[in-house]
Write a structure and sequence with these properties.
The structure holds two protein chains of two kinds.
Chain A lengths: L1 H17 L1 H29 L5 H42 L7 H29 L10 H27 L3 H25 L1
Helix pairs in contact in A: 1-4, 2-3, 2-4, 2-5, 2-6, 3-4, 4-5, 5-6
Chain B lengths: L3 E11 L4 H9 L6 E9 L3 E13 L1 H10 L3 E10 L10 H8 L1
Antiparallel strand pairs in B: 1-3, 1-4, 2-3
Classes of the chains: A mainly alpha, B alpha+beta.
Chain lengths: 197, 101
């Protein structure tokens, strides 16, 4: 218990030093939004072409989720690591000391890992959430799966908007709707393009 | 060997962790009864602070280790008091003369 308490206290310190919460929140929303819209685009394409194989839809969707997750993990890790190392070097110049083996060095490493994980998990979660209905084609027909999937996607977008609204202390409904509008625009453009194709 | 009773250090440290956190950590060191951390000057990235520790038996290496662990560096040891009693600096005639000069 003592170890757990000390470990939690250490992580809290690292969070305060590296200010990782702000960056992680930003990446979570941005990449969650990416995940949702990517899968929405995929599903709209399948729906408009009257595609009915749920296994292909699910597998394509999951592969896309995994690719987004790996892209997020790798990209965020390398980007955040470069930025943190650059900040650390500047701080070392200012304090005329090596900060690698200090709390600051450890806090920066912690932040890099946290941001990479958030960047990987966020698109995966939102995209997988949208694809879940296609696991239940034994009980639902394919059209119903599509409709539930669209509803889940817009719900995810709305929830992300509410999350942003809570951070900025703005009207939650309006914040949610701003994200949903992006989804609606994406659908409309896809429909117009595919119908004219 | 005598105990260190009071230590005054000139430290340069990054802005984060704050002097509040640093002071708490220094006060947690065994042998340290009290800590005072005063801000001397600061810029966008770092701050210069004066740390005063008092206690029954201060281990300098432990104090230094906490400062380094928080990203700071001890620029100078400005004052040390050792022994069973803390002796305050006494003003002499020569000190007054040099002030007037």
């Amino acid at each position: 218990m003592n170890f757990l308490y000390k470990y939690t206290k250490k992580l809290k310190e690292y969070r305060e030093i590296s200010k990782v919460d702000e960056i992680a929140r930003r990446y979570f929303v941005m990449n969650g939004f990416d995940g949702s819209l990517t899968i929405l685009g995929l599903l709209i394409g399948y729906y408009l072409t009257n595609f009915k194989n749920p296994i292909v839809i699910f597998v394509t969707g999951i592969s896309t989720c995994i690719a987004m997750g790996i892209s997020g993990l790798w990209g965020a890790y390398l980007t955040e690591r470069s930025e943190r190392i650059s900040n650390l070097r500047e701080l070392e110049k200012a304090t005329i000391s090596n900060l690698n083996n200090t709390k600051i060095g450890s806090a920066y490493k912690f932040a890099t890992i946290v941001v990479a994980i958030v960047d990987a998990v966020a698109p995966f979660i939102t995209a997988f959430f949208s694809l879940m209905p296609f696991l239940f084609t034994k009980y639902l027909d394919i059209r119903t799966c599509y409709y539930i999937s669209f509803a889940l996607t817009f719900t995810a977008l709305f929830v992300l908007g509410i999350f942003l609204g809570r951070i900025s202390k703005e009207n939650l409904f309006i914040s949610g709707m701003k994200m949903v509008i992006a989804g609606i625009v994406s659908v409309l453009i896809s429909v117009l393009l595919i119908r004219n194709f | 060997m005598s105990n260190i009773r009071r230590l005054v250090l000139d430290v340069l440290k990054p802005l984060s962790p704050s002097i509040v956190d640093l002071a708490k950590q220094l006060a947690d060191i065994q042998g340290v009864d009290g800590v005072d951390v005063s801000l001397v000057e600061m810029d966008a990235r770092s701050e210069s602070v004066k740390i005063t520790c008092e206690g029954e038996d201060i281990i300098f290496k432990e104090v230094e280790a906490v400062i380094i662990d928080n990203g700071g560096s001890v620029h100078s040891v400005d004052k040390v008091s050792t022994g069973s009693t803390i002796i305050e600096e006494v003003s002499t005639h020569q000190d007054t003369e040099s002030t007037l000069a």
